[in-house]
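Exercise 3.2. Students should predict the tertiary structure of the chain below and write it as structure tokens, then compare their answer with the key that follows.

Predict this chain's 3D structure.
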Amino acid sequence: QVQLVESGGGLVQPGGSLRLSCAASGRTFSDDILGWFRQAPKKGREFVGAIRWISNSPWYGDPAKGRFTLSVDGAKNMVYLQMNNLKPEDTAMYYCAAASSDYIPQKSSEYAYWGQGTQVTVAS
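Answer key:
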């Protein structure tokens, strides 16, 4: 059974940084996609970015471009989302998700497995 567990969220001031982690277990992910989404109160789930496990090739959604960086540690079965220059509008619950796909899915419905989320709050 696939299990994804996020960690690393918290309260940070505007301009600060956080690194979110996603621990993946339950199978060999090899060619799978590990993605990050976020959901703010009263809003839909938004694509942040995704990375192909085997090639470590990231793809970023608009909120992440220029500020966030995705990486994979295959030996530890971990995916990281480094977030820099955080803004109040980045406040949301952040979710890790996994998909099997030939391309990088950007819709939440295309991801079969989800973690429970980790809260990120950016405020002074």
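Discussion points: The radius of gyration is 13 Å. The longest strand covers residues 18-25.
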